[in-house]
UniProtKB/TrEMBL annotation:
Keywords from the UniProt entry: Endoplasmic reticulum, Glycoprotein, Glycosidase, Hydrolase, Membrane, Signal, Signal-anchor, Transmembrane, Transmembrane helix
Keyword Transmembrane helix annotated: yes
Domain Glycosyl hydrolase family 63 C-terminal: 318-806
Chief site of localization: endoplasmic reticulum
Enzyme nomenclature, EC number: 3.2.1.106
GO MF term (any one): Glc3Man9GlcNAc2 oligosaccharide glucosidase activity
Region of interest (Disordered), ranges: 392-411
Residue span(s) of domain Glycosyl hydrolase family 63 N-terminal: 48-280
Functional summary from the UniProt entry: Cleaves the distal alpha 1,2-linked glucose residue from the Glc(3)Man(9)GlcNAc(2) oligosaccharide precursor.
Protein name: Mannosyl-oligosaccharide glucosidase
Origin species: Aulographum hederae CBS 113979
Signal peptide start-end: 1-29
Length: 818
């Protein structure tokens, strides 16, 4: 045993002290007066991020932010029939009809939270209440999870559930069940204890608790002779020694084991005298050293049990009382913080919106994962990838077909993922949006995630847009999409988040929970470390996505500031993020993409502000110069008088520059990214016309991706050709607010009205699908408002959390109009 026994009163005193210290730690201002204080604060902050449900592809999967370390998770199934058990087993999140919603009702990355899984197929509502005690011990501390199940309405109250918790160790170390309770074949009567040691974790103990005294857990009974040696009121443990690469495939491992165990039972009792199903699908009780341990319980009706992880560096192990107290305290703390930083404003100042907003935010943070592994890259740098010839897409396809793919890494990434069942990995274009609600909640966590992304940058300045690290991540991605190309860019949305950080610093945010907001030296150090990487990425983007202004007699303020996404085909520009949005046909090397130029503008403006914070005056001037050139060029190259809006540009049959206008999100980009001059009365008026016209982009459910008047509206894949996307709508709302609150804008009144209506339309649309289906969705149908495509899309759809927290201007609008 790692922990010597101590008198009970001493434990109570120590626990009280720990709780007191934890409260103290979060209430005192996180400001530091010396560099040593700062380091201590940063270390404490880092510790509190060590553990989490960082395997968001699982319904419940825990791991530390350490490569090749412990993997823990839950699997379960209903077992009252022989048939269908395999399909009933849950482990990885899937787009299932039989799960009626799941996710975190509350979640804070540093403390923990509560998740509910409405498992209709298994007739059970499962809860996982996860609590971290990061200040116990010198490392990431303790954690615990209380797992409970309640039969769903319409199912028998004695529904039989088979539930497994597992612990696996990928790297070096030790993992071994201990205790006097190991009884060959009969199962464990009390707690199952697994002791271990691993790099970065030191020694630890994992305890899967048996039924407490007075517990109301019930277990199936039966008269079959196999019950003599395998009583279901016991807990079973089976240890395995497996190749490290297999350790994430927990369900196949379980099935293989069950099959061999069932074969033995068949042999012993015969086909006609098999044990009942709840007895049949029980693992063999064989504990010993190994790198994976399955722990199984079988319940009848409602149940509850705890799993406690104790760090060996703490004086006392984690207890169920601590878990109970933590659950209560965290819930209260979550609600308090929510009210202080993201409280929904009118007309959303009602309990149903608050609960909805809390869930979305919690799912966004509960969807943060830690990934580690190798990745596939084509670094051939083929000439074809410059896309300089006519019909270049046929050449690039051929070059890609040569398949010069190498395996790189391993690398690690800490990231908030777009969707647990469908996109459980890092996406560069999504991340900046994910972090916009998170930065208000936990600025330091946000900065950590940004740092993690920039640690992936290569010497040229490239960051792969989709991070598919290791075999587990690859198992979800078709082979042709696994390879990343170092000439492919993606919208640099992390610069939006960094801009928000700098804006908070400039405003002198009083958020004492953030080290970086309350210590200018810490902020300076962070930005100073990141700044060269930001500049490298910016330079890489400008170089590799450069457009050709000079060859086609284009008249523009600057001959440099024009850009073209690489990776184009006639049907798609996946790299732009707006995959099938209509562009010039056929593709042409002389194209200029208005969104690409706008994104460069976003980077230039953020870099200028960061340089200014760092007192890099020469560079401030340099970025300001770029900014001016971009602002001028966006009008010179992309404003089409004939259409009265911004458009892409291409080259016509006479080799002359021509606009390609498909009104929709692409036409709004200079407005959305802040590179458009909001004082330009006429142009802003036309942008507002387009946004507000229900024959074009306006709908009852948000701003459509493409105008209803466009010939391609709703055609083909119809991915970005009509549906409402919340990320783009969020940017629209932000700019409308800028105009509505500008003291001088002549469009104040109209912007206020559009802002007020759009806020309402978006929030109510996302809420309605949430209520109807139990899920947030990837996009919304502009006609019906129904959620479509990917289910459980709690990535940027969660921006409605921010939209609800934005100010209510409906009163102001009315006053203005009177
Ligand atoms: C934060 O913790 C992780 C995991 O223990 C560790 O790998 C990393 O070096 C730590 N970072 C800092 C800045 O302390």
């Amino acid at each position: 045993m790692v922990f010597p026994r101590r008198p009970q009163w001493l434990i109570q005193v120590l626990l009280a002290l720990l709780t007191f210290l934890s409260v103290l730690q979060t209430t005192i201002a996180a400001s530091a007066s010396t560099p040593e204080d700062l380091t201590a604060l940063e270390t404490a902050s880092n510790k509190s991020l060590l553990w989490g449900p960082y395997r968001p592809n699982l319904y419940f999967g825990i791991r530390p932010r350490i490569p090749k370390s412990l993997l823990l998770g839950l699997m379960w199934a209903r077992v009252d029939e022989y048939a269908g058990v395999q399909e009933n087993f849950r482990h990885t999140c899937e787009q299932h009809n039989s799960i009626h919603g799941y996710g975190w009702d509350t979640y804070d990355t540093r403390r923990g939270g509560e998740q509910t899984i409405h498992d209709e197929g298994n007739g059970i509502d499962l809860k996982t209440k996860f609590v971290k005690i990061p200040n116990a011990g010198d490392d990431g501390g303790h954690w615990g999870v209380r797992v409970s199940g309640t039969p769903r309405p319409g199912f028998p109250s004695d529904v039989k559930t088979n539930i497994l918790f597992y612990a696996a160790l990928e790297g070096l170390g030790r993992l071994e069940p201990v205790g006097d309770d190991v009884e060959e074949e009969k199962g464990w009567r009390g707690d199952v204890v697994i002791e271990g040691e691993a790099g970065g974790l030191g020694s630890f103990e994992i305890k899967v608790m048996g039924d407490e005294m007075g517990s109301s857990n019930n277990h199936p009974e039966h008269g079959h002779p196999s019950g003599e040696t395998r009583r279901l009121d016991r807990t079973f443990l089976k240890s395995f020694q497996l190749p490290a690469e297999a350790l994430w495939q927990n369900l196949p491992i379980l099935f293989a084991h069950l099959k061999s165990s069932i074969d033995k039972l068949m042999e012993e009792y015969g086909k006609d005298n098999l044990p009942p199903p709840e007895q049949l699908f029980v693992i063999e009780n064989e504990g010993g050293p190994g790198n994976m341990h399955l722990v199984q319980k079988v319940f009848e009706g409602a149940f509850e049990f705890d799993v406690l992880f104790s760090s060996g560096s703490a004086p006392e192990p984690m207890t169920s009382e601590q878990l109970t107290d933590g659950i209560k305290a965290n819930k209260k703390e979550f609600e308090n913080r929510f009210k202080s930083v993201l409280k929904p404003q009118a007309p959303f100042d009602k309990p149903k919106y608050q609960q909805f907003s809390e869930s979305l935010l919690s799912n966004l943070m509960g969807g943060i994962g830690y990934f580690y592994g190798d990745s596939k890259v084509d670094r051939s740098g083929a000439d074809e990838y410059l896309e300089e010839n006519e019909e270049f897409w046929t050449e690039t396809e051929e070059a890609r077909g040569k398949n010069e793919v190498s395996t790189e890494g391993p690398t690690e990434l800490f990231t908030s993922i777009p969707s647990r069942p469908f996109f459980p990995r890092g996406f560069l274009w999504d991340e900046g949006f994910h972090l916009m609600p998170i930065i208000d909640w936990d600025t330091d966590l946000t900065l950590d995630i940004i740092k993690s992304w920039f640690s992936l940058i290569d010497d040229d300045g490239w960051i792969a847009r989709e991070q598919i690290l290791g075999p587990e991540a690859r198992s979800k991605v078709p082979a042709e999409f696994q390879v990343q190309y170092p000439h492919y860019a993606n919208p640099p949305t992390l610069f939006i988040t960094l801009q928000a950080f700098v804006d908070k610093l400039r405003k002198g945010s009083s958020d004492s929970s953030s080290i970086y907001l309350s210590n200018p030296e810490a902020a300076t150090k962070y930005l100073r470390d990141l700044y060269p990487l930001l500049k490298r990425h910016y330079a890489w983007f400008r170089r590799t996505q450069a457009g050709d202004i000079k060859s086609y007699d284009r008249e523009a303020f600057s001959t440099k500031e024009g850009y073209r996404w690489r990776g184009r085909t006639p049907a798609h520009i996946l790299t732009s993020g707006l995959d099938d949005y209509p562009r010039a046909q056929p593709p042409h090397p002389g194209e200029l993409h208005v969104d690409a130029l706008s994104w460069v503008g976003t980077m230039a403006i953020a870099l200028k502000d960061i340089a200014s914070f760092l007192n890099e005056d020469d560079e401030v001037a340099e970025f300001a110069g770029h900014e001016t050139a971009i602002r001028r060029n966006v009008d010179d190259l992309h404003w089409a008088d004939e259409s009265g809006i911004y458009c892409d540009a291409t080259v016509d049959q006479y080799d002359e520059s021509a606009h390609v206008c498909h009104k929709g999100y692409i036409s709004l980009f200079p407005f959305l990214t802040g590179v458009m001059d909001l004082a330009d009365k006429e142009k802003v008026g036309k942008v507002l016309d387009l946004i507000g016209d229900d024959a074009e982009l306006w709908s009852e459910h948000g701003i459509r991706s493409l105008s209803r008047r466009d010939a391609l509206y709703g055609t083909g894949e119809n991915y970005w050709k009509s549906p409402v996307w919340v990320n783009m709508n969020y940017l629209v709302v932000v700019r409308l607010l800028d105009i509505a609150t500008s003291p001088t804008s002549p469009h104040k009144t109209r912007a206020t009205r559009l802002y007020t209506d759009l806020r309402k339309n978006l929030v109510n649309t996302v809420l309605k699908s949430w209520q109807d289906t139990g899920f947030a969705w990837e996009q919304y149908n502009p006609e019906t408002g129904e959620g479509q495509r990917t289910q459980h899309f709690t990535g940027w759809t969660s921006l409605v959390v921010k939209i609800m927290a934005m100010p209510d201007l409906s009163g102001a609008g009315v006053r203005d109009e009177l």
